[in-house]
Amino acid sequence: GPGTMTDSYAASLCSSSPLCCLDFSGYIEFVMAMRYRATKQAITYHFKALDIHHRGYLTIGDLNYWYKEVMEMMNHSSLPFIPSSADVCGEIFDMIHPQQKYHITLSDLIECKRGYIVIGMLIDMNYFWAYENR
35-60 burial string, b = 16+ CB within 10 Å, else e? Predict the structure, then answer.
């Protein structure tokens, strides 16, 4: 929904893309990645923004960084139950089953067929809440 994407993710999109996210081409790329989240191209697009340290993988620390703002947004929305970072990180690693323990790569996200869910959980409060209450 409107206003539920985290500000830190939006800022990371702009810094991770060779195209300014405010130009038309960047906007179209963003819209396509959001609309077709489960595609390899969309997961690749989002992974580049999530991998803020440019290591080629995400760690527990990275997951905590991204989930922290989602959790803060849920706190401000007065939701009845907000899962802990530890629980969310554990669930994400269980969903992905990365090849290397505690390192989630782009390949891991694509191959597990649930990478788009993880991305949504980390960047959008409403997506997270919908997943949590499925």
Answer: eebeeeebbebbbebbbbeeeebbeb
Strand-pair partners of 100: 103
3-state secondary structure 70-100: HHHHHHHCCCCCCCCHHHHHHHHHHHHCCCE
Helices (H), 17-124: 24-35, 40-50, 60-76, 85-96, 106-111, 115-123
Dihedral of alpha carbons 122, 125, 128, 131, sign: negative
Over residues 50-66, the pLDDT tens digits come to: 999 999 999 999 999 99
Integer angstrom CA distances of residue 3 from 102, 109, 124: 31, 25, 9
Q: What is the mean pLDDT of the chain?
A: 90
pLDDT tens figures, 89-103: 999 999 999 999 999
d(CA 33, CA 56): 19
pTM (two decimals): 0.88
